[in-house]
Amino acid sequence: MHSTSTSAPGRLEAGRRVYAVGDVHGCAERLAALHRAIADDLAARPVAAPVLLHLGDYVDRGPDSAGVVALLAGGPPGVERIDLMGNHEQMMLRALERGESRAVEHWLINRGEATLASWDVPQEARPREWIRYIPPDALARLRGLRLAHRIDGYLFVHAGVRPGVPLAAQSEQDMLWIREPFLSSGEDFGAVVVHGHTPEAAPVVRHNRIGIDTGAVMGGRLTCAVLEADRIGFLSA
């Protein structure tokens, strides 16, 4: 599904188009469908410099985290791809790499067991053994995720930014976890922030931020914001 484009709060240079995908949470079939919709959109409306950008939270909760991580390596051919880290990837990596009870409990409370099941990790395996069952290419992909990415008038980040703090000085904790005071702030952040992390029934477009977590794993849709020039539209699956 593609909505009619409307005026956007930011702007991209001529020839650029960004497809920004919200929180996937193990919904591999929806991500594959969205990638096909992006490819169809590009075939119908070619552009010189397309970018496919995923905003994080690929794992946990949903049925196929392994499939989602594998799909990050794909996407339409000839399209630059940028994959950002979400708080769930941070929790997963800390649990796998440290094996500490605190990190493990934090991840499992946030539905990490669904991720372990998607990679067929035996239930009897100990936390320090879990990492042996995750393919090296998947681990490398997760470890290589970026915290944020700036394109022209937009900053792409998983959760948001701390109001009153310069973009270059934002902390990892805030970029992966913040909700308030970011969500209710009316200040100019120095760029329009495109983010996920906080699920809403529909995309949120304000003068200083665009929220595109629409609860794919909670009965909602997986949303992709389509940004070009001074316009915004949406694809969903």
Describe the structure in brief.
The chain is of the alpha/beta class and 237 residues long. The chain is 28% helix and 20% strand.
Describe the 3D structure.
The protein is α/β, with parallel strands linked by helices. It has a single domain, classed as Purple Acid Phosphatase, chain A, domain 2. It is 28% helix and 20% strand. It has a six-stranded mixed sheet. A five-stranded mixed sheet has the order 5-6-7-9-8, with no helix packed on it. Helix 1 runs parallel beside helix 2. The longest helix has 17 residues.
Output the CATH class name: Alpha Beta
CATH third-level topology: Purple Acid Phosphatase, chain A, domain 2
Strand order of the largest sheet: 1-11-10-2-3-4
| Cα end-to-end separation | 7 Å
Oligomer type: single chain
Q: What structural class do you assign from the helix and strand content?
A: alpha/beta
| Low-pLDDT segments, ≥5 res | none
Proper CATH architecture: 4-Layer Sandwich
Helices and strands, in N-to-C order?
EEHEHEHHHHEEHEEEEE
- What proportion of the residues form beta strands (DSSP E)? 15-25%
What is the domain tally? 1
> What is the tally of beta strands?
11
The geometry reads as globular
Biggest sheet: strands, sense, closure?
A: 6 strands, mixed
Q: Overall pLDDT, averaged? A: 96
The number of helices is 7
